């Protein structure tokens, strides 16, 4: 009897050790990831500021940062994996929607339709994204290190109140500017008849994408407001089951 109790204690200890090891590995990876992403978005910010100071115009800014932007924004797909495997306690759906919508804006709007790259709306959402991501990733980094400066926390949970609507406006205006070009060129569209017997109109897809902001934006914005109350004011958020 004593032997089985000792074996059980040993097994429990080994299980706890494995959990601690996995936790340490996850923390180390998340710290590295967030430092790398903070650095990447800082590079984007510096590149944009340097370009504007040298050229005195926003035209050409997108092309100067395109490769870096595509790399770091696409790399954010890793965050969906973080949620899926449970090393980050955030909704997979919320994270997936935010990440995928940005990747869509980068690859299938701004990168694909060169005529919109010099639109002021592109610069608007790029500036918003950059400030948001620098504050977000730096907050996550310091939080993992258990040393969060107050101004970092303040920026993370206050700037979004202004930046989020501005970013959405920039994205919607950019898609709107792309609509005539997409309609004229029929890009990414599939007309009948074809061997697949399927039709797809990218123009109308973009209109639907714009309309999807109506239900999605309030949900994501109020989610951030709830997180703000929880972090800055210590309110306990009780989720009600429908």
Structure description:
The chain starts with a helix and ends in a 9-residue tail after the last helix. α1 runs antiparallel to α2 (61-75), α1 packs antiparallel against α5 (120-144) and α5 packs across α6 (150-158). The chain has helices at residues 2-55, 61-75, 78-85, 92-110, 120-144, 150-158, 160-185, 202-233. The protein is built from eight helices and no strands. With 242 residues, the protein is mainly α. The model is unreliable at 236-242 (pLDDT under 50).
Secondary structure blueprint with pairings:
Elements: H1 2-55, H2 61-75, H3 78-85, H4 92-110, H5 120-144, H6 150-158, H7 160-185, H8 202-233
Estimate the helix proportion, in percent. Answer: over 70%
Count of alpha and pi helical runs: 8
Largest sheet: none
Total beta strand runs? 0
Percentage of β-strand residues: under 5%
Order of helices and strands: HHHHHHHH
Computed Rg? 22 Å
- N- to C-terminal distance: 48 Å
Oligomeric organization of the protein chains: single chain
Unreliable spans are 236-242
Shape: globular
Average predicted local confidence, pLDDT: 89
Quickly give the structural class: mainly alpha
């Amino acid at each position: 009897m004593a032997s089985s109790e000792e074996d059980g204690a040993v097994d429990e200890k080994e299980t706890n050790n494995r959990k601690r090891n996995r936790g340490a590995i996850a923390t180390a990876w998340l710290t590295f990831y967030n430092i790398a992403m903070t650095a990447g978005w800082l590079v984007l910010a510096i590149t944009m500021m340097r370009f504007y100071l040298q050229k005195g115009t926003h035209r050409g800014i997108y092309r100067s940062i395109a490769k870096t932007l595509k790399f770091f924004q696409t790399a954010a797909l890793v965050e969906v994996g973080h949620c899926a495997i449970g090393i980050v306690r955030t909704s997979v759906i919320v994270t997936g929607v935010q990440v995928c919508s940005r990747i869509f804006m980068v690859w299938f709007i701004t990168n694909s339709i060169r005529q919109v790259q010099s639109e002021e709306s592109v610069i608007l959402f790029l500036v918003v994204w950059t400030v948001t991501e620098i504050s977000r990733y730096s907050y996550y980094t310091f939080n993992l290190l258990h040393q969060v400066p107050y101004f970092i926390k303040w920026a993370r949970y206050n700037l979004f109140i202004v930046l989020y609507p501005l970013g959405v406006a920039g994205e919607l205006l950019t898609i709107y500017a792309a609509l005539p070009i997409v309609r004229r060129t029929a890009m990414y569209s599939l007309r009948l008849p074809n061997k697949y017997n399927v039709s797809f109109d990218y123009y109308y897809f973009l209109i639907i994408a714009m309309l999807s902001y109506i239900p999605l934006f309030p949900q994501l914005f109020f989610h951030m407001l709830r997180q703000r109350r929880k972090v800055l004011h210590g309110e306990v958020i009780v989720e009600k089951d429908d």
